[in-house]
């Protein structure tokens, strides 16, 4: 096997000295260095159909895989490429089709994407080495003008006709053009299924000035859209007949927040007016959960988690179209690691006599992407080690008071490390919203990457001097009831939390039974529309303890004083002002009562803690 360096032509402008491996050198063929894949997992297999999909979403830069203490997610982008290449060949050899789809959000949440300026300049190129059949963008490609320009130049130009966005526009010079194709009509290679596809972003309104999002409900009124639907619902010509409508995009497939307008359901009802009987398949994203849903028996919807933890699989068996017995749609959430990837290939390939446990698994392209990622991480200095995290600190797995609860670590040890800007002896409360923490802190090396993973947000602190007894009432006030604290960058995190809470609250025991089997590893036990059998690997359940809206540290440095400096991130300020004006009947608090208190991020404070305690 000769490994050539694909990475050379793609990346040579950005990084020099790319390491390559040939048959005389040791080949890196196990995800990123230092990791191992899980073993002896108990699997549920994929059920292939005439049309098969592999789906990713909300990857947020995690192309190196999960480096700390999470065997289930140790696959990297190269492993995924090796898998999808074989998967495609094997299913095609059975005369079946495969489509590879991504639903957007490729920035924010991992050092590989976030350490560069502009953000994503390396990671987008890595992402784009996967040969997607259909691709679109998420809200994280729209916050910042630089991201959007880069996404347009690197990704739309790369994927061309495969880049679809029905409701996002880009300002090119002076004119507005579509962010990719508005729709795509195509026929599958093997089964010759005719598919009409659209891609939608949810009604996101914080887009930058070079872009705009047209809400779905507006698209439903547009002539071109309805004329296209009419043409295919009432075909004058056999070649206009459809086998499937495919909607993929960046929008949750279950409306957990029932106050909101359900955009996807509105779209579905609109489509059904034209196509009462046609199969419709949705792929969603944004709320970062594994999910499957059905609006009716002839449609289904899949959402494939986040952060390269999940590769979503869905198949459609058109032959079963009119039978009530067998399911038309089959879904599976594949854990993103080499053991899962190899298992599923071995299952479909048994008749070919191929054994993917041996060397057959890694493709040249997969290997060169893996080694390129290793190289890029080291060139970007993401491998720099600040210290060693002794055990897992988790957002939801332990009660708030537990020593391994991440929020507890933050409030008791980390927040007090914020530098004093003025009075060293002042009493202090430092309050953060739980949504500003994005991910758990796993045992292992604390590298430059870890900071971006746990809390990538750049904010500045502000403070207000308050009477102690008033200040102490703020945290309980904000944690009462359904009070919502949202930063636009954090909304998806909130949604995820909220959807878990909703499941807890509204399903009253209808979540999956707790699995507690010592021979199984902890992992996702996904509850969806069809029940609890969607995950490809049998896992032990991870306990879930909801976290409060906000947490705070309290430092009493001056016992005599009845005053306290109350310190918060600037974007939380409006909520503090509202709380104060409600708690203090004669209060008239406003922005101008707050003053600047430094710009260290929660990530900076965490590094301070790690260097002082774990290095
Ligand atoms: C952690 O750092 C050590 C020392 O540099 C290294 O040998 C090991 O491979 C690293 N572990 C991971 C998972 O990267
Ligand atoms: C589709 O379903 C039919 C009936 O259950 C079955 O005979 C056939 O093998 C299925 N096709 C595929 C590709 O799985
Ligand atoms: C039907 O569509 C095919 C392919 O687009 C085209 O070649 C043909 O002329 C059409 N026939 C009619 C009657 O419009
Ligand atoms: C990597 O980052 C660390 C910490 O910021 C710094 O001390 C070190 O000099 C950096 N190394 C390189 C090669 O840039
Ligand atoms: C509250 O403060 C604002 C300006 O900070 C002032 O215009 C307003 O009159 C005050 N209202 C009361 C009731 O004191
Ligand atoms: C943070 O504040 C310091 C001192 O005021 C300033 O020098 C630095 O540029 C600021 N950093 C950021 C990222 O705003
Ligand atoms: Zn996301
Ligand atoms: Zn999103």
- Biggest sheet character: 6 strands, mixed
Radius of gyration: 25 Å
Helix content: 25-40%
SS element count, helices: 17
CATH C-level class of the largest domain is Alpha Beta
- Beta fraction of the residues? 15-25%
Overview of the structural elements:
Residues 1-20 form the signal peptide. Pfam families: NadN_nucleosid_C (PF21953). This is Putative 5'-nucleotidase C-terminal domain-containing protein. The chain has 615 residues and is α/β, with parallel strands linked by helices. The protein folds into two domains: 6-379, Metallo-dependent phosphatases (Purple Acid Phosphatase, chain A, domain 2); 387-491 and 546-613, 5'-nucleotidase,  domain 2 (Alpha-Beta Complex). It is 27% helix and 18% strand. It is built from 17 helices and 21 strands. Strands 6-7-9-10-12-11 form a six-stranded mixed β-sheet, with no helix packed on it. Strand 6 (183-187) and strand 7 form a beta hairpin. The longest helix has 17 residues, at 77-93. The site of one 2-acetamido-2-deoxy-beta-D-glucopyranose (NAG) has 2 residues, from loops.
Write the layout of secondary structure elements.
Elements: H1 6-11, E1 51-56, H2 77-93, E2 97-102, H3 111-114, H4 123-127, E3 134-135, H5 145-159, E4 168-172, E5 175-178, E6 183-187, E7 194-201, E8 211-213, H6 216-219, H7 223-233, E9 244-250, H8 263-274, E10 279-284, E11 290-293, E12 299-304, E13 310-316, E14 329-335, H9 338-349, H10 364-379, E15 385-389, H11 406-414, E16 428-433, E17 444-447, H12 448-454, E18 461-467, H13 468-471, H14 474-478, H15 491-506, E19 550-555, E20 563-569, H16 573-583, E21 595-596, H17 602-613
Parallel strand pairs: 1-2, 2-3, 7-9, 9-10, 10-12, 16-20
Antiparallel strand pairs: 1-13, 4-5, 4-8, 6-7, 11-12, 13-14, 15-17, 16-19, 18-20, 18-21
Helix pairs in contact: 2-9, 2-10
One zinc ion is lined by residues 58, 60, 105, 138, 140, 286, 288, 492.
Pfam families: NadN_nucleosid_C (PF21953)
Keywords: Signal
Protein name: Putative 5'-nucleotidase C-terminal domain-containing protein
């Amino acid at each position: 096997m000769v490994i050539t360096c694909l990475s050379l032509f793609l990346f040579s402008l950005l990084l020099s000295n790319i390491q390559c491996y040939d048959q005389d050198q040791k080949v890196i063929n196990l995800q990123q260095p230092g990791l191992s894949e899980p073993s002896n997992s108990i699997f549920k297999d994929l059920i292939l159909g005439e049309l098969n999909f592999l789906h990713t979403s909300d990857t947020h830069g995690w192309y190196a895989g999960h480096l700390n203490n999470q065997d289930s997610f140790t696959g990297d982008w190269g492993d995924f490429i090796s898998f999808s290449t074989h998967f495609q060949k094997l299913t095609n050899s059975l005369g079946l089709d495969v489509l590879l789809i991504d639903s957007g959000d490729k920035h924010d949440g991992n050092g590989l994407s976030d350490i560069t300026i502009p953000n994503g300049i390396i990671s987008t190129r890595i992402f784009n080495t996967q040969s997607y059949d259909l691709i679109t963008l998420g809200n994280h490609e729209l916050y910042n003008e630089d991201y959007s320009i880069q996404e347009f130049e690197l990704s739309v130009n790369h994927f061309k006709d495969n880049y679809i966005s029905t409701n996002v526009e880009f300002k090119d010079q002076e004119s507005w053009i579509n962010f990719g194709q508005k729709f795509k009509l195509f026929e599958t290679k093997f089964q010759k299924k005719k598919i009409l596809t659209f891609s939608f972003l949810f009604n996101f309104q914080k887009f930058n000035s070079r872009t705009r999002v047209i809400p779905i409900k507006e698209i439903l009124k547009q002539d071109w859209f309805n004329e296209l639907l009419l043409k295919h619902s009432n075909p004058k010509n056999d070649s206009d007949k459809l086998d499937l409508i495919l909607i993929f995009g960046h929008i949750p497939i279950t409306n957990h927040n029932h106050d909101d307008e359900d955009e996807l359901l509105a779209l579905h009802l609109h489509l059904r007016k034209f196509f009462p009987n046609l199969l419709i398949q949705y792929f969603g994203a944004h709320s970062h959960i594994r999910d499957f849903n059905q609006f009716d028996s002839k449609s289904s919807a899949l959402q494939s988690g986040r952060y390269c933890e999940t590769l979503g699989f869905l198949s459609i068996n058109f032959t079963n179209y009119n039978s009530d017995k067998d399911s038309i749609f089959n879904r599976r959430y594949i854990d993103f690691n080499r053991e899962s990837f190899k298992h599923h290939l071995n299952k479909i390939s048994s008749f070919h006599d191929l054994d993917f446990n041996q060397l057959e698994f890694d493709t040249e392209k997969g290997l060169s992407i893996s080694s390129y990622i290793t190289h890029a991480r080291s060139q970007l200095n993401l491998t720099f080690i600040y210290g060693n995290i002794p055990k897992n600190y988790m957002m939801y797995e332990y009660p708030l008071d537990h020593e391994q609860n991440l929020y507890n670590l933050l409030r008791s040890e980390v927040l007090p490390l914020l530098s004093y800007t003025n009075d060293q002896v002042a009493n202090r409360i430092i309050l953060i919203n739980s949504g500003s923490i994005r991910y758990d802190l796993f045992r292992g090396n604390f590298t430059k990457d870890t900071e971006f993973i746990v809390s990538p947000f750049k904010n500045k602190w502000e403070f207000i001097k308050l009477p102690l007894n008033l200040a102490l009432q703020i945290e309980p006030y904000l944690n009462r009831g359904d009070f919502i604290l949202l930063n636009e960058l954090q909304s998806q995190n909130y949604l995820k939390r909220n959807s878990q809470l909703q499941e807890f609250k509204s399903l009253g025991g209808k979540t999956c039974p707790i699995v507690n089997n010592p021979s199984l590893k902890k992992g996702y036990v996904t509850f969806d529309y069809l029940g609890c059998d969607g995950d490809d690997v049998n896992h032990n359940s991870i306990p879930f303890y909801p976290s409060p809206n906000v947490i705070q540290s309290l430092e009493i440095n001056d016992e005599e004083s009845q005053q306290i400096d109350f310190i918060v991130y600037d974007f939380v300020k409006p909520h503090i002002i509202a709380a104060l004006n409600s708690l203090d009947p004669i209060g008239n608090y406003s922005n101008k009562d707050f003053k600047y208190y430094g710009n260290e991020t929660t990530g900076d404070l965490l590094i301070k803690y790690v260097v002082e305690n774990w290095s």
